Amino acid sequence: MVEQNKAESTIVGGVAVERLRSLIERVERLEEEKKALSGDIRDVFAEAKSAGFNVKVIKTIIRQRRQEEAEIEEEETLLDLYRRALGM
Q: How many CB atoms within 10 Å of residue 16?
């Protein structure tokens, strides 16, 4: 059953076909952009590594920069506690 709504969009089984297609195509474009950005980020980490930086530490710093100071302090306190408990 195919009907027409006020905006002249095709409706199939209660689904606005053009709207659905538009949403799917937007997600596909964003996925492609994300893929390109992931490659760019990988390249920056490779550059950092070749310059002698520790990539794991850089990733930790980036993660911590997103956190609140209290979260960082709590994490570091727990790390210290766990290390001491394990004799490290």
A: 15
